[in-house]
Each structure stands twice: as structure tokens, then as C-alpha cells.
């Protein structure tokens, strides 16, 4: 999971904790005297339930994690839940620690309803500060308030490995000429015209299966499939309204044709390792590449063009980027990014400035260039979120 996505999730969890924390402390303080009387406990929980905005279920567990109350929902108490052992549930794992009094679980799929859920657990203490139980509140993730901000897709080059069976038999196969291969120039010209003049903002060209999938700015929620019958006929452009080059595009008009020409070069690079499909989104500037080894790459259009054909066809005449130059330990790197981000905006900006000047910060002295580049791009993505108004340091 990218650090930007993790940051968005963590920010949402922080909002939920703020919303729930003080409320549950108050309610938990009202329960110790009722712990030995399940019926009185149920009656009090029914009074609490309407005050817990958006919750689905509320219940009380003893100090061992066994439920002693009914499960209260909007229809009333469910007494069959009494005696249910919840001690091994994921949301109870933190609560067994001595210094933990409140926990908001990670999202999980509920056992009964099979819905994405969250559980908040608050420790119940007697007047002597001894733990006597837990107050549990379950939420349906779909009904909780969410941030209106959608996380930004990571900007760094991403590689996703494909089917191991395909990679294992890679050198036993060779490219079979497809119908699209025979008409490649016409097909690419049609795609260029559709993007530049007919309002298509996203394309996926499937060279091996001779088809294309396109998205139009006038109807962006629906994709359209074009077969070779349409793609070899320039009249297809008459089926779409003429549109000025999309105003949200970040890919320069002149680069669309260059990208498509590079797709062609990668398609015919080698008879064993070759491009199966290529995609281009002119709004976010992303290029997608899927090769015969089933490896998939996503990178920015300018980086794709800047590499040049020498990068892809160098060495043994195979596309070099199919196999990453360095096998990165992303778990270790994500932990490092989280550690550095916790230092605050000022320190992170200083670190980014050093990296941009090709200086190596002391905290990254033992890291390779590939690792430093990954850390830089992830921290840059985090700071882009902060600069939207979150950071106050």
C-alpha cells in the first residue's frame, strides 16, 4: 500500500477517534455498578444507544472479553449474544495490554453480515481504577462520515508482477502476429485522432487481442470497446463529437503521438519479450505497459518518453525495465517513510530539499539510490497532502 493511501486512511481514523473517544469514556464510567446485573446493563445500554451516533451495535464484555450484556441494536436487545467469547477477535488484541484504555480496530469484514466494519473498544474501570470490563461499539464502515478528499495516485514508477506461470515459460513462447500488428500505423493514427480531436481521454490498446478500450470525456463512467473492424476504419472518428483537446489534460498534445509511436516500438522490440497492451490517460498523465512476461508498469508520460528507446532496447536487446534494476524492500522503505514523516513538515521539507540537490541526508546514508528515490517520491506525495492545509507545523 502506498504511503499516500496509508496517510489518507490514518487521517480518516484520527477523525473517527476524535469523534468517539470522549463519548465512550463518559459512557464507560456509568457502567461499573451494573456489571453484575445483565438486565440492568441492557436497560442502560438501550438508553446509551441513541446517543452513539451512527453505531450499529453496542455491548459490554467482562475483563476476560466474554460478553455479559445483550447486543443492543436499533431493534432492541439480542440476548442470544450473552456469553459470546470475543477475546480472540482482532479488535481485542490491543486491549489486553495494561496501558491501553481505548482502541479503534482496523477495518474488517463482520462475521455475520459480511460487511466492512470497525469496532471501538473502551475499558471499563471501577472506582479503584481496576479493569472490570469493556464497552464495545460496532460501526458499519459504509455509514461513517468520510473525508471528501480522494488520495492521490503515487507518482513514482510502479511495477506489478504478473502470473508466475507465464514468467516461468517466457522463453518458450514467441510473439504471434496479430491483426492489429498488420495495421498498426492505421490503428495508432485513429487513437491519436480520437484523443486530440474527439474527446477521448483514456485508452487501452490490446495489441495481442486486437481490440481497444476507450473512455470519452462526455460519458466518462462508461467504456467503449473497439474491435479491428472499427479501428482500421478512420470513419470511426465521425461517431464521436468533435471536442477541443481536454482542458484537464496534462499531457501536451504533441506528446500523444510520441507515446503511441513508442508503444509500437515496444510491441516489435523482440519476438520473445514484447508489449501486449499499452494505456494512456492524458488527465493524470499515466502510461501503463503490460509485457509478454506479464509484468505491468505504471509511470508518468514524461518519464516514459525521457527514457528513450535506448533504455528499453539496451543491453541484450530486451526491454530493461521489465526486470527492475533493484529489488526494493517496500515494507522496510514504507516504515522508513512513516518514521521520517512523523518528524514534521519542516524536517521533511529539509530532507526533500537535500535530496533534490543530490545530497544524501545522514538518515539515508546506508540506502541505495533506488531506495532514496522511493523515499523521496513517497515523502513528496505526503507533503502534497499536507500543503493542502493539513500541516500546521
What does this structure look like?
The protein has about 400 residues and is an alpha+beta fold. It has three domains: about 5-145, Beta-Lactamase (2-Layer Sandwich); about 160-320, no CATH class; about 330-390. The chain is about 35% helix and about 20% strand. The protein is built from eleven helices and 14 strands. The protein has helices at about 5-30, 40-50, 165-170, 180, 185-195, 230, 255-265, 300-315, 330-340, 345-355, 370-390, and strands at about 55-60, 70-75, 75-80, 100-105, 110, 115-125, 130-140, 160, 200-205, 210-215, 220-225, 275-280, 285-290, 295-300. The protein has a seven-stranded antiparallel sheet. Strands 1, 4, 5, 6 and 7 form a five-stranded antiparallel sheet that branches. Helix 5 runs antiparallel to helix 7 (about 255-265). The longest helix has 26 residues, at about 5-30. The two termini are about 25 Å apart. InterPro entries: Sensor-like_sf.
Amino acid at each position: 500500500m502506498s504511503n499516500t493511501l496509508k496517510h489518507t486512511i490514518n487521517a480518516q481514523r484520527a477523525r473517527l477517534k476524535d469523534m468517539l473517544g470522549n463519548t465512550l469514556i463518559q459512557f464507560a464510567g456509568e457502567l461499573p455498578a451494573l456489571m453484575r446485573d445483565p438486565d440492568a446493563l441492557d436497560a442502560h445500554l438501550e438508553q446509551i444507544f441513541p446517543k452513539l451516533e451512527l453505531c450499529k451495535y453496542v455491548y459490554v464484555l467482562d475483563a476476560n472479553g466474554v460478553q455479559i450484556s445483550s447486543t443492543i441494536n436499533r431493534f432492541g436487545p439480542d440476548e442470544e449474544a450473552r456469553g459470546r467469547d470475543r477475546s480472540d477477535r482482532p479488535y481485542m488484541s490491543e486491549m489486553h495490554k495494561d496501558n491501553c484504555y481505548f482502541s479503534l480496530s482496523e477495518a474488517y469484514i463482520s462475521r455475520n453480515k459480511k460487511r466492512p466494519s470497525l469496532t471501538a473498544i473502551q475499558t471499563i474501570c471501577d472506582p479503584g481504577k481496576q479493569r472490570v470490563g469493556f464497552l464495545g461499539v460496532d460501526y458499519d464502515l459504509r455509514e461513517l462520515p468520510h473525508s471528501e478528499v480522494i488520495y492521490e495516485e503515487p507518482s513514482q514508477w510502479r511495477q506489478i508482477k504478473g502470473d508466475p506461470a507465464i514468467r516461468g515459460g517466457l522463453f518458450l513462447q514467441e510473439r504471434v502476429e496479430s491483426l492489429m500488428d498488420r495495421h498498426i500505423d492505421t490503428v495508432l493514427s485513429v487513437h491519436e485522432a480520437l484523443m486530440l480531436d474527439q474527446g477521448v481521454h483514456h485508452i487501452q490498446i490490446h495489441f495481442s487481442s486486437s481490440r481497444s478500450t476507450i473512455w470519452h470525456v462526455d460519458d466518462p463512467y462508461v467504456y467503449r470497446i473497439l474491435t479491428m473492424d472499427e479501428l482500421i476504419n478512420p470513419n470511426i472518428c465521425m461517431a464521436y463529437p468533435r471536442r477541443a483537446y481536454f482542458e484537464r489534460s496534462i499531457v501536451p498534445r504533441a506528446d500523444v503521438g510520441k507515446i503511441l509511436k513508442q508503444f509500437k516500438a515496444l510491441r516489435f522490440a523482440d519476438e520473445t519479450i514484447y508489449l501486449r497492451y499499452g494505456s494512456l490517460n492524458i488527465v493524470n498523465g499515466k502510461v501503463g505497459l503490460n509485457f509478454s512476461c506479464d509484468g505491468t508498469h505504471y509511470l508518468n508520460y514524461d518519464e516514459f518518453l525521457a527514457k528513450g528507446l535506448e533504455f528499453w532496447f539496451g543491453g541484450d536487446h530486451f526491454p530493461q525495465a521489465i526486470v527492475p534494476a533493484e529489488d526494493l524492500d517496500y515494507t522496510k522503505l514504507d516504515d522508513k517513510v512513516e518514521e521520517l514523516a512523523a518528524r514534521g513538515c519542516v524536517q521533511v521539507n529539509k530532507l526533500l530539499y537535500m535530496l533534490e540537490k543530490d545530497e544524501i541526508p545522514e538518515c539515508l546514508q546506508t540506502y541505495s539510490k533506488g531506495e532514496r528515490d522511493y523515499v523521496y517520491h513517497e515523502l513528496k506525495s505526503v507533503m502534497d497532502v499536507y500543503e493542502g492545509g493539513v500541516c500546521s507545523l
